[in-house]
Structures are given as C-alpha cells and as structure tokens.
Amino acid sequence: MKIKINHNDEDLWCLYSKERIGVGERYIVVLEDYLDMTIKKIYSYDCLEMLIDEYLEQYDEEPEIFGDD
Known about the structure:
The protein has one helix spanning 48-59; strands at 2-5, 26-34, 37-44. By secondary structure, the chain is an alpha+beta fold.
C-alpha cells in the first residue's frame, strides 16, 4: 500500500466508495498481481483501516505502508 496526495488529477475516484478524490486529498494505491498483470487499485484515505483489516485477515501480518514520494 502506498499513501499518496492527489496533486492534479481532477478525475481520481475511490474504487470502494465510488466518490471522487479531490486535488490535495490523500489516497491509497494498492497494487495486486493477477495472471501476470499488475492491477492498480485506488482508494480514498478513509478506507485505510478497512484495507489494513482485510490484509491482516488474508495474510495474517501487517501490510507495508509507504508514504508519498
């Protein structure tokens, strides 16, 4: 998981809540590998706890969370 800040994308949407992520707001990028492809999933920052809980349930360990470059 990577926490980023939306610097200029006027059309960035949360996959879970289906709400727009405004310029200046934090969001989360999750990269998942499926069939030799990497899929980039975008979530609003409000989904962080839910994503951590899902990761813990699936992998039984804390996820690595990185900040914005």
